Amino acid sequence: MNNSPWLDEVKWDANGLVTAIAQDEKTQRVLMVAWMNREALQLTADTGIAHYYSRSRQKLWKKGEESGHTQTVAELRLDCDGDVIVMQIAQAGGIACHTGRESCFYRRYQQGGWQTVDAVIKDPAQIYRA
Amino acid sequence: MNNSPWLDEVKWDANGLVTAIAQDEKTQRVLMVAWMNREALQLTADTGIAHYYSRSRQKLWKKGEESGHTQTVAELRLDCDGDVIVMQIAQAGGIACHTGRESCFYRRYQQGGWQTVDAVIKDPAQIYRA
User: Looking at the predicted complex, does its ipTM rise above 0.90?
Assistant: First the structure.
C-alpha cells in the first residue's frame, strides 16, 4: 500500500489525469504540455525522470523511451486549484517535440494565422528510426 | 460571419475549450493556466488582453475584471497538436493568482509533500473587496 497524501491533493480529472507542463530549467522556455495519471506522477517524483500518460496510446509513457529525449526533473510545482503541474526539467538532446524541434510551441500567431517560426533541429525520421 | 481559419486550427476539446498558459514575458515564470473557448481566444487576439472561459462560472472571463490584474498579451503560440496555447504576457499588479501571489504555482514538491514556498503579495480581501 502506498501512503501518498500528496497525490491525493492533486485534483485528478474525470479520467484520472492532470495537466503537466515541462519548462526548461535554464531557458525557462515551455517545451511541452502533456498528461499524467497517478502512476506517472509517482514515478516522476521517485525517479526524477518525467513520465506521462499517453491518452492516444492509453498507457504510461516515459518521455524519451523511443527518441532518447528524456527529461530530468529538477522541480515539481502544483497550482492553486491542484489541477496543473509545472516541472523544471533538463531536456536531453535539446529536443522535446516529436517534430524534431526544441519546443512543441513553434507556431506563433501573426498576420492573422499560426506561423511556424522555429526550425527543426533533427529530422524525426532520424530520431524515431527503428 | 467571421472567417477565422486560424481558430479552426485549434483542436478544441469536447467542451469547446483549449488549455491556455500565461507566462510572464520578462521573467518567463508560468503564472497561471486556465481555459479558453473560441470567443475568448478571438477576443484575446483582437484586444491584446487575456480573456478566458471560466468552467466553474460557465462564462467568458476577462482576467482582472474584478481584481484589476489584467494581462497584456505580447505573443500567442500554439503547440504541435493544437490543444495548448502559451501566451507571453505582462501581468498588471504583478499578481496572477487569486490567493494574492505572483503565480498560481506557489507549492513545490519537497520532503514528500506540496510545500507553500511563495509569499502572498497582497491580501485577497483587499484585492476583491466590493
Answer: yes
